[in-house]
Amino acid sequence: MERLQKMLAHAGIASRRKSEQLILDGKVRVNGKVVKELGTKVSHSDTIEVEGVQLEKEQKVYYLLYKPRGVISAVSDDKNRKVVTDFFDTVEKRIYPVGRLDYDTSGLLIMTNDGEFANLLTHPKFEIDKTYVARLKGIPKREDLQKLERGIKLEDGMTAPAKVKLLSADSKTGKAIVQITIHEGRNRQVRRMFDAIGFPVQKLSREQFAFLTLKGLNAGESRELSAHEVKLLRVMAETGKRH
Question: What is the pLDDT of residues 96-148, one digit of tens each?
C-alpha cells in the first residue's frame, strides 16, 4: 500500500505538494469515490481517476545499479550534479532509488517505479542485511571492532549489533580495510559508527543487499532484477526473514 499523493507524484501527475492539493480539492477518485483525505492509502489494483481521467497502470520495472561515487541518490538535483537516473536514459519509466547511498559512497542501489515494493524494502521493520566495505584511517584492534559487534551509541541512539571483519591492514600506510554488515538504514550510519570508535572512513562501498551482489558490474552499470529476485525480496520483506 502507498499514500495516494505519493502514487500520483510517481505517476507524473504532479509534484507531491500539488498532488495533495488535487486531493484536497476533491479532484481525485479512488474506485469511483471522491477521496479528500491525504492519509489515504491505495494499491496498484485500485482504479484512480484525476479530474475524470483514469491513471494508467505502468508496467513495473526493477534494476540493480552499481552507483559510482560522486552521484546523488535522487531523480534530480538543484545543483545540477549527476543523479542516479542519469544512468537510465533509455528507460522510459519514471524510476527512482529505493533508499539512498551518500554522494561519496559507491555500491549497490535498487531502482524501480514500484512504490509498494520500495516501501516494503525501506520499512523500519524490514531488517535485511546490507554489507559494506570500508577503507579506514588507522588500524582498529579486535576490541575496537567488538564495540560495533555489540552495538554502539550514536547521537540518534544505540545501533543494532553488526557483523564486522578485518579484511586487511597496512602498517606502513596506517590504513585498514574492514567489512561490516548491518540491517539498519540510518543516515550515514556506517561512517558514524567508525567515527565513534576513532577510525574515520576514507572510502566506502555497499557490496551486498540481501542476496544481491555487484558481480559482473562496473561502476555506472546496471542490470534488471529477475522476477525470482523480486519475489524473494518481497518474501523477505513481508516475513521479516533475514538473509
Answer: 999 899 999 999 999 999 888 988 888 767 778 999 999 999 999 999 999 99
- Whether pLDDT at 243 is above 60: no
pLDDT digits (tens, 9 = 90+) for 162-216: 999 999 999 999 999 999 999 988 899 999 999 999 999 999 999 999 999 999 9
Burial 146-167 (b: 16+ CB within 10 A, else e): ebbeeebeeeeeebeebebebe
Assigned C-alpha cell, 69: 561515487
Cβ neighbours of 128 (radius 10 Å): 18
Show the domains of the chain with their CATH numbers.
2-54 (3.10.290.10), 62-125+215-239 (3.30.70.580), 130-209 (3.30.70.1560)
Task: Tell me the one-letter amino acid at 91.
Answer: V
What does pTM read for this prediction?
Answer: 0.79
DSSP β-bridge partners for residue 181: 131, 163
- Write out pLDDT tens, residues 44-101: 788 999 999 988 777 899 999 999 999 999 998 889 899 999 999 999 888 999 989 9
For residue 102, indicate whether it is catalytic.
Answer: yes
The catalytically annotated residue of 46, 86, 102, 129 is: 102
Give burial (CB, 10 Å; 0-12/13-18/19+) of 79.
exposed
Residue 203 φ then ψ, to 5°: -155, 140
Q: Locate 15 and state its grid cell.
A: 509534484
Q: Which amino acid is at 213?
A: T
- In whole angstroms, how far apart are CA 43 and each of 3, 25, 64, 147, 234? 9, 21, 24, 43, 15
Query: Where is 239: in which H helix or E strand?
Result: helix 227-239
